[in-house]
Amino acid sequence: PPDPRSPTGVPEPPTAPDARRQSGERLTTAQGLRVDDTDHSLTAGPRGPVLLEDHHLREKITHFDHERIPERVVHARGAGAHGTFRAYGNAASVTKAAFLAEAEAETDVFVRFSTVLGSRGSADTVRDVRGFATKFYTSQGTFDLVGNNFPVFFIQDAVKFPDIIHAGKPHPDREIPQAQSAHDTFWDFISSHTESTHMAMWAMSDRGIPRSYRTMEGFGVHTFRLEAADGTTSLVKFHWKPALGVHSLVWEEAQIAQGADADFHRRDLADAIDAGAFPQWELGLQVMPDTPDETFEGIDLLDPTKIVPEELCPVQRVGIMTLHANPENYFAETEQVAFHVDHLVPGIHVTNDPLMQGRLFSYLDTQLSRLGGPNFAQLPINRPHAPVNDMLRDGMHQTAVHDGIVAYKPNALDDDRPTASPDDGFVTVATPVEGTKGRHHPVSFTDHFRQARLFWLSMTPVEQAHVAQAYAFELGKCASPRVQENMLASLARVDADLASRVATGLGLPVPAGDVPEGVEPSPALSQVPTEPGRVE
Ligand code: HEM
């Protein structure tokens, strides 16, 4: 049988111990040479100079010098866990992806939760978006659902991603995350790029300070295209629903937790798993018809700043994930894991959402430098649990032994080379593409306030109070009066009462509540009940 440790399926040499493990009882060099003494360098005489000849000394220090790899450019601070996903089988009507379609199918998963802006050593309970990335090691190859704990994103086009991140990250001069200038640029970006209005409100809501990773929802954000065995397609949004419900900290708790325990969330996750209180999430789908205009009830499904309200399209639960094991080694697993939106399996496809399309480029590109070359799929945490026979060759950190001299198909020299799979391989759904080249501004992407208003109106009075306080607190950190005024003007386009509360909190004049034409909920959205208490 193919050797699961070998990406090519080539059996490992019989005498080689498992390369992933340390073995033997004696301390050795990396070459397996037993070391006589690890506490004293080789010197010329008891008080003499240290000799360059000391291989053990040089190897030990050189390896130490290279222990760090670059942290992720975003989502650097994270915590991971292993688990299992079990499918209910009811998704077979919409997707042929075996791990979703086959009832009771069990699939290994690795999940990494993260904050976005902080560095690797930053505190867990800051106000921020949380990453919720899941690697499904399916029998058909690896599928990654690289989502967040908010259902929308700040921007509609990946070309702005470096801009929003640079606006929010610590500045190059002082590198102080909470500097006034970083507040200025962040809120300047939000008020100048008004498609961010909706997501910024999620960040200011209690969702921005989760109580625990175990009590967060997760969202694939983008619309995906699912394909059933009979070829029918649908447009779908992915949701994770936590068994423990959604819970947040209040701001004061979050601040105290940061000081008392910067590792509050990662400790909570690891402790819960150690104690056998395994966290669980159900995976849910909002399934919408695959129409030529890719809209649903007037909502452009390619716009990642929009939700589809669950009242208009309920979430159907299709399986359950249980996290039951902590990583053995943080670096090998949580740090070296590489997620990618483009890791797909038959039955799941991407769409033309311009943010999603940019991500398809970004993840592999960044991992090439973060993980030192093109062979990081061979790292144990990234190895598929399906057989791999890729005919790729060489490269930095190659650990596989690729057999065969002929690395192409078809060929006339070696019939044993791996064959393609027209029957059950990944075939891109044949969606039509046409249009004029250009940097377009779709009209359907211009509604920047309606869903922010819907979100605001959906909250309870307590939740609304938290949101208004959060805006006032965060905008109060800005040094620029112009940025504060611009944000108040933007909030006035969402809701006059919200703008007035924030202005009062800042001690500034209340802006005119001139909700412009077209900002009131569309007929479809106005069907959504907006009384307090609607949000789960
Ligand atoms: C990392 C989610 C948009 C670039 C991540 C991670 C998550 C995530 C969860 C952490 C992965 C991990 O734990 O290793 C999202 C979501 C987005 C989004 C939900 C929008 C809906 C973007 C965009 C870009 C981008 C538009 C670039 C154009 C990156 C990069 C990393 C990253 C470079 C670091 C990856 C690594 O070093 O392994 N993202 N992201 N993201 N994201 Fe995104």
TrEMBL record:
The gene behind this protein is: catB
So what EC number does this one have? 1.11.1.6
**Residues represented out of the complete protein:** 24 to 559 of 710
Q: What class of enzyme is it?
A: oxidoreductase
Hey, which family's this protein in? Belongs to the catalase family. HPII subfamily.
Q: Please write the reaction equations for the catalytic activity of this protein.
A: 2 H2O2 = O2 + 2 H2O
* Pro residues compositional bias, start-end: 1-16
Name listed for the protein in its UniProt record = Catalase
Q: So which cofactors does this thing need? A: heme
Q: Which domain of life is it from?
A: Bacteria
Ranges for region Disordered: 1-49
Main function: Decomposes hydrogen peroxide into water and oxygen; serves to protect cells from the toxic effects of hydrogen peroxide.
Per UniProt, the keywords (alphabetical) are:
Heme, Hydrogen peroxide, Iron, Metal-binding, Oxidoreductase, Peroxidase
| Catalase core domain ranges (all copies) | 28-417
Q: What is the lineage of its organism?
A: Bacteria, Bacillati, Actinomycetota, Actinomycetes, Micrococcales
